[in-house]
Amino acid sequence: MSKQISVKDASTYFFDGMTLMFGGFGGIGTPPTLVRALLEKGCHNLHLIGNDAGFPTIGIGPVICEGRARSLVASHIGSNPVAGELMKKGQLAVEFNPQGTLIERIRAGGAGIGGFFIDIGLGTVVEENKPTINLRGKQYIIELPLTADISIVYAKKADHYGNLVYDKSARNTNPLVAMAGAITIAEVEEIVPVGSLDPETIVTPGAFVDKIIQSEGVNWKWIWQ
User: Fold this and answer.
1) What is the pTM of this model?
2) Range 28-62 burial, b when 16+ CB lie within 10 A, else e
3) pLDDT tens figures, 108-153
4) Which whole number is the average pLDDT over 31-48?
5) Which run of H or of E encompasses 63?
6) Is-contact 206 159, C-beta < 8 A?
7) 146 phi and psi, to 5 degrees?
């Protein structure tokens, strides 16, 4: 049975106040058609989880710039000055994580791990309001996993079962994000019959993907203007 749906059907999974996890690094690997569908549906009060805030016209950036998000868990936001302004005004709550810690929290969420110990950030703002543990004479921060109501990812190819193949660095955080959503929707450039993909090139098994859509491509400047 094919997991392919229309963009319109994909947008029915989005709702106000949802926790949305997105793949991508500086916008590369963030699914543009799904972001556009999210904007067009008009969802607000979103809790976003991803590597960064994108750029104002690229990646998850337009969602943040339109004031649709009330919180963001990320490793940095410097590429999107609007995100910084919203944070300073108290209109966007930002939780910063060291990049490796963030990715491991997402991986832990997808793998069903209850948490992990790490010494990165001890004695800094990273440690604030987090439990710590002394193990074998060494202090660690206990980091908790991250999961989402919906995960959106971007891939080069998919078969109808949802097995995903990525394109070079556009792979970035997408495989881990795909695992951590209660529902995962993949936007792909090309959809092929089951059995057409070389098994050695499949990075995300279809078991982690609930729905797939055909990418339509997006002019980000057109969206933001």
Assistant:
1) 0.93
2) bbbbbbbbbbbbebebeebbbbbbbbbbbbbbbbb
3) 999 999 999 999 999 998 898 999 999 999 999 999 999 999 999 9
4) 97
5) helix 61-65
6) yes
7) -120, 135
Is 39 part of any domain?
yes
pLDDT 10s digits, 178-202: 999 999 999 999 999 999 999 999 9
Judging by DSSP bridges, how do beta strands 19-22 and 148-159 pair with one another? parallel
CATH number at residue 24: 3.40.1080.10
Confidence class for position 209, pLDDT limits 50, 70, 90: very high
pLDDT tier, 165 (very low <50, low <70, confident <90, very high otherwise): very high
Query: Is 45 part of a structural domain of the chain?
Result: yes
β-strand partners of 30: none
Residue 176: which residues within 8 A CB-CB, separation 6 or more? 103, 106, 107, 110
**What is the rounded CA–CA span in Å between residue 24 and residue 108?**
18
CB-based contact 23:155 (threshold 8 Å): no
| 43 assigned to some structural domain | yes
Asked, for residue 2, whether it belongs to a domain, the answer is no
List the domain range (segments joined by +) for residue 176: 7-216
pLDDT at 225 over 60: no
Q: Which residues lie closer than 8 Å to 191 by C-beta, 6 or more apart?
A: 4, 157, 158, 159, 160, 212, 214
